[in-house]
Design a protein that fits this description.
The protein is an alpha/beta fold. It has two domains: about 140 residues, Aspartate Aminotransferase, domain 1 (Alpha-Beta Complex); about 230 residues, 3-Layer(aba) Sandwich (Aspartate Aminotransferase, domain 2). The protein contains 13 helices and 15 strands. A seven-stranded mixed sheet has the order 2-10-9-8-7-3-4, sandwiched between helices. Strands 11-12-15-14 form a four-stranded antiparallel sheet, covered by helices on one side. Strands 1-13 form a two-stranded parallel ribbon. A hairpin with a 7-residue loop joins strand 11 and strand 12. Helix 12 crosses helix 13. It is globular.
Length: about 375
């Protein structure tokens, strides 16, 4: 099925200067970093063009972002957000890292579910905290939390849990019951939960995203949700995200965040986020439908050209976690795909040792470019 998101021009994309399109030579098809290939949603484009016309390129003023988000969260997620509990930060990873700095001290253990988003590793290391790995369980239907191992990690003295939901790279969306169990354990063992929910607005049909702090004042007493418009509307470079405290107690603790953290937010990020939350719903619904089609198209393409690759379609987002072990390309198949297929994928090992033999593929593109990506992967092993 052809839709508006299939009308992307490779020639135009190669004129972009973002990381995705400027990292590799022009003969390489990029499908690695989590950027989408689509034109901006019209309300966002209009807001930015208006600002440029006015020369409105100064410092960010956060007025209106929390209120716009609260309105959107109510309609999109049935989540009642108190604007007074919202703190503006430059991006989700900066927000998560600064909260970790506030709720832990150097040397404390931070739990992560592996495979894990690569900046989790570098950030925890940079802030002088320790890793406590809890590998996801591999099941017949995909990947899931190991709640027993999580409790052992909490009981052993971990002080924070950096929860990625929906999970990157597997695309798993955790259930309300699982999140409630995490909240119960976190409260029992006095563990702070920092929920990175950057892909939550891209939850696909068949799954339902439950913001962690929406579990309630008691359950989320020691928790925050960190979220933004960046992935859903492809505006990560504009720099604006939100930390939502799960309780008044946690909101008070966030007063320890650097006083100038808000000032590092981008003015264009604020303008684009307000436009996205207030007017971007129809575009986002259409995008979700396109991504739903692409995740199923990828199943068909792999079955036809690369039947040895094991793939569980994600429940959210546009990232595919591909097990290439049966292709016998070694622990880093991305290197082979790049060298011989001229297609750039994310290296599985960057997500932890249990990413050996995996690659992460970006499906946030047209169906035609997705087909070209798989074709190049197939060419690399023939």
């Amino acid at each position: 099925m052809i839709d508006g998101f299939d009308q992307v021009s490779l020639e135009m994309l190669r004129r972009r200067r973002s990381e995705k399109w400027a990292t590799y030579p022009a003969d390489v098809l990029p499908a690695f970093v989590a950027e989408m290939d689509f034109p901006l949603a019209a309300p966002i484009k209009d807001a930015l063009l208006d600002a440029i016309t006015l020369g409105d390129t100064g410092y960010a003023l956060p007025n209106g972002v929390a209120e716009a988000f609260a309105e959107f969260a109510r309609s999109w997620l049935s989540w009642s957000v108190e604007p007074a509990r919202v703190v503006l930060v430059p991006d989700v990873m900066v927000g998560a890292a600064e909260v970790i700095r506030v709720v832990t001290k150097p040397g404390d253990g931070v739990v992560i579910d592996t495979p894990a988003y690569p900046p989790f590793w570098s950030t925890i290391r940079e802030y002088g905290r320790g890793f406590v790995e809890v590998p996801l369980q591999r099941t017949a239907t995909g990947w899931d939390l190991d709640l027993e191992a999580l409790e052992r990690a909490f009981a052993s003295g971990a002080r924070a849990y950096l929860l990625c939901n929906p999970h990157n790279p597997t695309g798993r969306v955790f259930t309300r019951a699982q999140l409630q169990r995490i909240a119960d354990l976190a409260n029992r063992y006095e563990v702070a939960v920092i929920a990175d929910e950057i892909h939550g607005l891209l939850t696909l049909p068949g799954a339902s995203h439950v913001p962690f702090v929406s579990l309630g004042e008691v359950a989320a007493r020691n928790a925050v949700t960190v979220i933004s418009a960046s992935k859903a509307w492809n505006i990560a470079g504009l720099k604006c995200a939100l930390v939502v405290a799960g309780s008044d107690e946690m909101r008070a603790r966030l007063a320890q965040l650097p006083v100038d953290l808000r000032d590092r937010t981008g003015h264009f990020g604020v303008l684009a986020s307000i436009a996205a939350f207030r007017q971007g719903g129809p575009w986002l619904r259409a995008l979700v439908s396109h991504l739903d089609r692409n995740r199923h198209l990828l199943s068909e393409l792999l079955a036809d050209r690369l039947p040895g690759v094991r793939y569980v379609p994600p429940e959210a987002g546009y990232l595919a976690w591909l097990d290439c072990a049966e292709l016998r390309l070694g622990p880093d198949p991305a290197a082979r795909f790049l060298e011989r297929g001229r297609v750039a994928l994310s290296r599985g090992l960057d997500f932890g040792q249990n990413g050996a033999g995996f690659v992460r593929l970006n499906m946030g593109t047209s169906s035609q470019l997705l087909a070209q990506t798989v074709a190049r992967m197939a060419d690399a092993i023939t």
